[in-house]
Design a protein that fits this description.
Number of strands of chain D: 2
CATH superfamily of the largest domain in chain C: Response regulator
CATH architecture of chain D: Orthogonal Bundle
Mean pLDDT of chain D: 81
Shape of chain C: globular
Order of helices and strands of chain D: HHHHEEHHHHHHH
Distance between the termini of chain C: 38 Å
Largest sheet of chain D: 2 strands, antiparallel
CATH topology of chain D: ABC transporter involved in vitamin B12 uptake, BtuC
Oligomer: heterotetramer
CATH topology of the largest domain in chain C: Rossmann fold
Structural class of chain D: mainly alpha
Largest sheet of chain C: 7 strands, mixed
Shape of chain D: globular
Radius of gyration of chain D: 18 Å
Mean pLDDT of chain C: 83
Helix content of chain C: 25-40%
Chains: A mainly alpha (323), B alpha/beta (242), C alpha/beta (410), D mainly alpha (291)
Radius of gyration of chain C: 21 Å
């Protein structure tokens, strides 16, 4: 896991720069698929800060997409006279802030739950948020809410949002990397492995879990704000989606749970499979997603990175049989 | 060995639903010593450790570490003060390598500045597992896991190590190696409190024995004296032909 | 997986050109005319999505296989549908639509659900390709200044005007009403529309009940209705929720003088499930196969329904006709424009005033359906049949008011 | 006053049905420690099977219960042995996701076979009702409740007195000890799953009689079961009954006094709060704790 420390962020930025060329060479469809890939990867990494690093697999992170998006939309519509750039900044601040407040409030009680109890309680949190958002007229969840257009008139919104997602995704990735190699990250890892032992070794587990939860929620919320702008109009159903809740787990599972790059690989792969390969299938993709999930759990619980690691170990064993 | 005690336990009691697991236990541990707590199964040794490390809150009594009251403090705060514990049933971070396991101890543990890499190396060397650094923890043998447990605890730069039966289930060679490790750790300035069953190793390594029976302390003194104490023989060593 | 978001509201237009269909012998040589779009075949909106999908397919295959293609500006064209499942997911729908745009598709049909229709319409609008849709009624779609997006029914807040007009005309005049709606975008907007229209018509509102989007039990609402009984009870919600309410009303003997259910009684399956108890129930009927409109392709609504049944076993619903009318509207606009250039077709759509077996098609300058022509009619179940009681010109029977109590119907 | 009583009565009727719909989920959770997210699908399979057979044979849907239970018993056994057993020893997350994958596949298959439409079963007594002391009950709901209570009682007796029940309880409490005593744990797991599936199917029939259903409803019934189990405690019919009745009453009370669109909010709030306050349910955990 330990390579030259500066290499990873350089790699991330370089990869982002290469991807940024996408809209110049790819047909618009692939730019939109790219949007979804980068957005999903960002969400997957944000999720993994809590779910992969600390082992608290949330089944309700769509709550933060929704809360971020609606908070931003409600406030932006009050200040629609602002310039688009300022409006986005305002939306991000409000959306991120709302998620920070919500997650901080929820964190203390809910992080006392472990394992699947935590997962399901988060699903409950997501549904409570969705229902409140939908049923309290003030939040306009069932009527839907408009988002002012952001893209400059000269730019195709598809390209614009691709770059916006890419910038956001890169930042999320860099934040995740910083956490991964920090003392905080090591602490989260030890929490995932054995929380009681971690605490005994002096890891401030409660504080770390809460911090990871809030960071994860805020990053998810920020991506949700951008997502809502890309759609232009959202109802509760657009953002509080149970398939998002599921996909966030599948991304990590597919790429490699608890790794830094696994969620990204998983998100890229799954979006590519569902949008490009299965996109032309009519009514088959629920089945395909389900099958993929079953095969993953039974056949490759370590995900793509797990399989790769398995190969390496076996090859090493084959080349050094004398030991 | 006349400095202020590093650990002082005063009138410590713990009841589970009215059942007394520990009653009125008091003792003090000198800095730099190796003390063993012995007693028959169910005497309350592990409960005592759990009380000291903050896993359980006592019903009554006080625990002071370096003259600071740590009773009821969160486990991680106690660890930050410099108390570490090695479990009897090793609880490694299974998916991490030996190095990464020990590094967690070095990253956290006692408050204050440190050189993480050096501390990690030192912990592994003291526990004689430096050669296993890159192995995943889930490939180690039981004996190696015990060493890892101790290395990780030492890497916290603790001043007091509470080791729960480090020699249980080990063969004579492994036991000897473990005793050597404990000696080296003590030599590096760490105070050790052991819970141990293996009498020969206890007699060999300890400066002092504390004997618990049914939650109460029944003997305290140098190994040879205690071993001859009739109450201890009755309670713990059993009948002569055992 | 979320609550079903069945939008109601499809309107249709019908033009009274009883021109007989002309079969062509040149079907093989016809050029392809690609019309794309996504439909929700799985996920929350799947149920209605399938009806929309079938409507599109029925119209296209009739025009191709029975009529041998359509003639536009002297050229023969075969309609080639490219439909994909968007799984009721707006993000997925946008990539699917983009893929079709990249592939050179010039004309689009709508998905189902405003939260999907609007993001996809924004893409086609920017590409200056028309979209004719029957699945998005939210006001937001029609207030953004889109020029290329046309809806087959009035925007949500304008849809209840005809019913209020009916209530006003009843003798003896009803004094009070209560409204129940479910909490999804369309029903809620429609509920708002009911309140606006009925209050304006001088009726006194006793109570407003909001149900969750997915209803499982209405005992408590009905208990309240029994203690504060209105003359008219208006329910705006999906078919299955209407059925649940009707069944529980019968079972608990909750009576009102008139039960108006926005959706439900227009379905044969609904009337069968309720049996004799469906007598006297009123509903909006955007379309059924008895509507008197003429159609230059199918002939009339009945013939459309007959043809539909040769292709599908699924019971016909008004969304099927609305969807089919989208394609007919396209073809007639192209014929009027004498062109298949998107801009020209858009201009012809904006000027549309065609009769189809669905309704008379006419759009407002904002692109939504004309509130009078596409606002729907009102039906009442009389002797097991659904009769049209409003507007006057389409009336097949006089309204019955007050309706008998449940125990009298048994 | 009578409104309160009527609301409570409606809640209890609804609650009995919730209890039956949740008891299988509860049993699997208690014995296998698996959160079966395909539970709702099993419920729906029961409803669809009843629809098909009652129409084909022209019998009352409630009479199809034994046949449907038998089919689902077999299917449940195979499902556990062939799929879930392979994931059960890994992380709890793994087995949960496995069942989720199966739920998605089955939901898709249901859409193919039965279309995404709402279906409803209409028995002959669908519109009858009667009043007791001014409280109106509708006959379908009451007969559904009666069927639920009878089935719950049967399951309770089965667990308490039959040899199978004893083995299941023993395995739940002390898996290792049971294994040492010669219990074939895999077989017992599969039997438990089979029993759960059978009761889920029976619940589906009862639900089908009172409510319209469609393939997309599966998530609803899984969530309902989860809330019931959290309310009442894991693994016992009594817990499921308590949880179900509580949920039913909370639902109707919220609908009446807070607003008809709020039962879902209170239901999920209740779920989260209870997980926090009493992770083992109000009755405590009938079997051993789950990590």
């Amino acid at each position: 896991m330990k390579r030259s420390p500066a290499l990873v962020p350089l790699l991330i930025v370089a990869a982002a720069l290469v991807l940024a060329l996408g809209p110049f060479v790819l047909p618009p469809f692939y730019v939109r698929v790219g949007q979804l890939m980068v957005y999903s990867a960002g969400l997957a990494v944000a999720w993994a800060i809590l779910g992969g690093f600390a082992g608290y697999a949330s089944f309700g992170h769509a709550a933060f997409i929704g809360v971020g998006a609606f908070a931003a939309g409600l406030v932006e519509n009050q200040f629609s006279a602002l310039a688009p750039g300022l409006l986005l900044a305002l939306g991000l601040a409000v959306g991120g802030g709302a998620c920070a407040v919500l997650s901080a409030a929820v964190a203390y009680p809910i992080l006392r739950l472990r394992g699947t109890f935590f997962s399901i309680a988060m699903l409950g949190v997501c549904h409570v948020c969705a229902e409140v958002n939908n049923n309290v007229d003030f939040f306009q969840g069932s009527m839907g809410i408009n988002f002012p257009p952001l893209a400059p008139a000269s730019m195709d919104p598809a390209d614009f949002f691709f770059w916006l997602y890419l910038a956001a995704g890169t930042i999320v990735m860099l934040i995740a990397w910083l956490i991964w190699r920090s003392r905080f990250g090591a602490g989260l890892l030890s929490i995932r492995e054995d929380e009681d032992t971690a605490r005994m070794l002096g890891v401030p587990t409660e504080r770390y879990k809460r911090l990871a939860f809030v960071i994860s929620a805020v990053l998810t919320g920020l991506l949700g704000v951008i997502y809502a702008h890309a759609l232009g109009y959202i109802t509760t159903d657009s953002v509080y989606r149970d398939d998002t809740n599921l996909n966030l787990i599948v991304f990590s599972l597919l790429g490699g749970m608890g790794t830094l790059f696994g969620p990204v690989i998983g998100a890229f792969l799954l979006v590519f499979i569902t949008q490009v390969i299965l996109g032309r299938l009519l009514d088959f993709h629920l089945f395909a997603t389900g099958l993929l999930l079953v095969l993953l759990v039974l056949g490759a619980p370590g995900g793509v990175l797990g399989v790769v690691r398995g190969w390496r170990v076996r090859r090493r064993a084959a080349t050094a049989p004398a030991e | 060995m006349s400095a202020a005690p590093i650990l002082q336990v005063d009138g410590l009691s713990k009841s589970f639903r009215g059942l007394r697991a520990i009653s009125e236990v008091s003792f003090a541990i000198e800095a730099g010593s190796i003390t063993s707590i012995i007693g028959p199964n169910g005497a309350g040794k592990s409960t005592l450790f759990n009380l000291i490390t903050g896993y359980l809150a006592p019903t009554a009594g006080d625990v002071r570490f370096r003259d600071r009251r740590i009773t009821g403090m969160a486990t991680n705060r106690i660890a930050e003060l410099g108390v570490a514990r090695a479990f009897q049933i090793a609880r490694p971070f299974r998916d991490l390598s030996v190095f990464e396991n020990v590094r967690i101890g070095a990253l956290f543990g006692k408050a204050g500045s440190r050189d993480v890499e050096a501390t990690t190396r030192r912990g592994m060397e003291l526990a004689a597992i430096a050669h296993l650094a890159d192995q995943p923890a889930n490939t180690l043998t039981v004996g190696q896991l015990r060493h890892l447990e101790v290395a990780r605890a030492i890497a916290t730069r603790a001043d007091l190590l509470l080791a729960d039966e480090p020699c249980a289930g080990l063969n004579p060679t492994e036991t000897a190696a473990m005793i050597e490790v404990l000696r080296r750790i003590r030599a590096s300035g760490v105070t050790i409190v052991l819970v141990e069953h293996d009498m020969p190793s206890v007699m060999e390594v300890s400066d002092r024995l504390l004997v618990l029976d049914a939650g109460a302390m029944i003997a305290d003194g140098p190994p040879h004296e205690v071993a001859g104490d009739p109450r201890v023989i009755a309670a713990y060593l059993g009948s002569p032909d055992d | 997986m979320r609550r079903r978001d069945v939008l109601r509201g499809v309107a249709a237009a019908t033009a009274v050109f009883p021109a007989p269909a002309v079969r062509s012998a040149y079907a093989q040589t016809a050029k392809p005319l690609v019309i794309g779009g996504s439909v929700p075949l799985t996920g929350a909106a799947a149920e209605t999505g399938l009806n929309v999908n079938n409507g599109y397919i029925t119209a296209a295959s009739y025009l191709n296989d029975v009529l041998g293609g359509v003639e536009i500006a002297g050229e023969k064209y075969r309609i080639e549908l490219k439909l994909f499942d968007d799984a009721s997911d707006p993000a997925r729908a946008t990539t699917l639509i983009q893929r079709q745009l990249d592939d050179g598709t010039n004309f689009f049909l709508g998905s189902f659900g405003s939260n999907i229709v609007l993001p996809t319409a924004a893409i086609t609008e920017r590409a200056k390709k028309p979209m004719v849709q029957t699945g998005g009624g939210a006001d937001a779609i029609f207030t953004r200044g889109f020029k290329y997006v046309f809806g087959m029914f009035p925007r949500a807040t304008r849809q209840f005007a005809p019913a209020a007009a009916l209530f006003k005309s009843l003798k003896p005049a009803p004094q009070t009403y209560s409204v129940i709606y479910t909490n999804d975008a369309f029903s809620k907007t429609a509920g708002e529309g009911v309140r606006l229209a009925c209050d304006a018509a001088g009726l006194k509102r006793i109570e407003t009940y909001e149900l969750p989007a997915k209803v499982t039990d209405v005992s408590s609402v009905l208990a309240s209705v029994r203690s504060k009984t209105p003359d008219i009870l208006v329910c705006v919600m999906h078919d299955q929720d209407s059925l649940l309410i009707a069944r529980q009303m019968v079972a608990t003997n909750t009576n009102v003088k008139l039960l108006f259910q926005g959706l439900g009684p227009q379905l044969a399956s609904f009337r069968e499930a309720l049996g004799k108890y469906s007598e006297g129930l009123c509903c909006s009927t955007y379309w059924d196969e008895a509507v008197p409109y003429k159609d230059k392709f199918f002939g009339d609504a009945k013939k459309f329904a007959q043809y539909y049944r040769t292709k599908f076993t699924r019971p016909i619903a008004y969304h099927v006709a609305g969807a089919a009318a989208c394609i007919e509207t396209y073809v007639m606009a192209m014929q009027a424009a004498k062109s298949i250039k998107p801009e020209a077709v858009r201009d012809a759509l904006a000027k549309a005033d065609f009769e189809t077996m669905y309704a008379r098609i006419k759009f407002t300058p904002d692109g939504d359906g004309d509130a009078l022509l596409l606002g729907g009619m009102i039906g009442q179940v009389q002797k097991g049949k659904l009769e049209t009681i409003f507007p006057g010109e389409a009336r097949t029977a006089e309204p019955v008011y007050p309706t008998p109590t449940w125990d009298k119907k048994a | 006053m009578s409104l309160v009583v009527q609301t409570l009565a409606d809640g209890l009727v609804l609650g009995g049905i919730y209890a039956l719909a949740a008891v299988g989920f509860s049993l699997i959770f208690g014995v296998l420690h698996v959160i079966n997210l395909s539970h709702g699908i099993l419920v729906l399979i029961g409803a669809y099977l009843a629809l098909v057979t009652s129409q084909a044979l022209g019998v009352d849907p409630l009479l199809t219960i034994p046949a449907v239970m038998a089919v689902l018993f077999g299917a449940g056994y195979a499902y556990q042995r062939l799929l879930i057993q392979r994931a059960v020893d890994r992380s709890p997350l793994g087995s949960m996701l496995l069942t989720f994958g199966v739920a998605l596949m089955l939901q898709n298959i249901m859409i193919w076979v039965f279309s995404p439409d709402m279906k409803s079963i209409t028995p002959s007594y669908a519109f009858a009702s009667f009043s007791v002391a001014g409280i109106t009950f509708d006959a379908v709901r009451v007969s559904a409740l009666a069927a639920s209570l009878v089935l719950l009682l049967c399951l309770a007796l089965l667990l308490k007195f039959s040899p199978l029940g004893r083995v299941i309880r023993a395995t739940a409490q002390q898996t290792l000890a049971a294994q040492l005593c010669g219990v074939n744990v895999k077989h017992v797991y599969a039997l438990t799953f089979a029993v759960s599936a059978a009761f889920a199917g029976a619940a589906g029939i009862v639900i089908g009689v009172i409510l319209p259903f469609s393939p997309a409803d599966e998530a609803l019934w899984t969530m309902n079961a989860f809330v019931v189990v959290v309310l009442g405690g894991v693994g016992s019919p009594a817990g499921a009954l308590l949880g179900g009745l509580l949920l039913g009453i909370v639902n109707t009370l919220t609908a009446q006094y807070v607003g008809p669109s709020f039962p879902n909010v209170t239901m999920f709030l209740l779920l989260v709060l209870l997980l926090l306050v009493r992770p083992n349910g109000l009755l405590g955990n009938a079997f051993s704790a789950s990590r």
